Every structure is written in C-alpha cells, then in structure tokens.
Amino acid sequence: MGKLGNISGKDAVKAFQKAGWATIGQVGSHLVMVKKECRANLSIPQHKELSVGTLRALIRNSGLSVDEFLDLL
C-alpha cells in the first residue's frame, strides 16, 4: 500500500476523473463528482493538502483501492 500524504484536492479530482468520475458542480470549496455506476457522490475539498482520513474515505466511497488511486495520480 502506498503513501497518501501531501495530495491536494486538485490532484485528487484529476485522479478520480481518470477513473470515470465527472464533476457536476461546486458547493463552497468542495467539488461534487458523480459516476453513473455508483450511487454515491464524492465531495472533494479543494485544499492544498487533504487529510489522510478524508482521502481514504473518498477512495473507499469511489470503489477504488488505495493502490489503484495512487496509480491514477
């Protein structure tokens, strides 16, 4: 399992887009992403660095593993 430290919200959005997620809008400082096959929406904070817990929760909700996510970066 790779390291999840020092990943920005902008980088996370790019990785999720490569996995098929699409941005549908923004609410405050959070981008909202959806995917047709998934019922869950991802709300990604646009911070310079995401906390590891927040990033793990986003990865889990997207249906990816940590290693799959890191490969998309």
Compact description:
With 73 residues, the protein is of the alpha+beta class.
What is the H level of CATH, i.e. the homologous superfamily? Answer: Hypothetical protein
Contiguous uncertain segments of 5+ residues: none
Report the portion of residues in β strands. Answer: 15-25%
Which fold name corresponds to the CATH topology? Metal Transport, Frataxin, Chain A
Give the tally of structural domains: 1
Give the overall silhouette. Answer: globular
Helix content: 25-40%
Distance between the termini: 14 Å
Please, how many helices?
A: 3
As an assembly, this protein is: single chain
The description of the largest β-sheet is: 3 strands, antiparallel
Q: Which class do the helix and strand fractions yield?
A: alpha+beta
Based on the coordinates given, report the CATH architecture.
2-Layer Sandwich
Summarize the helices and strands and which ones pair or pack:
Blueprint: H1 9-18, E1 22-27, E2 30-34, E3 42-45, H2 52-62, H3 66-72
Antiparallel strand pairs: 1-2, 2-3
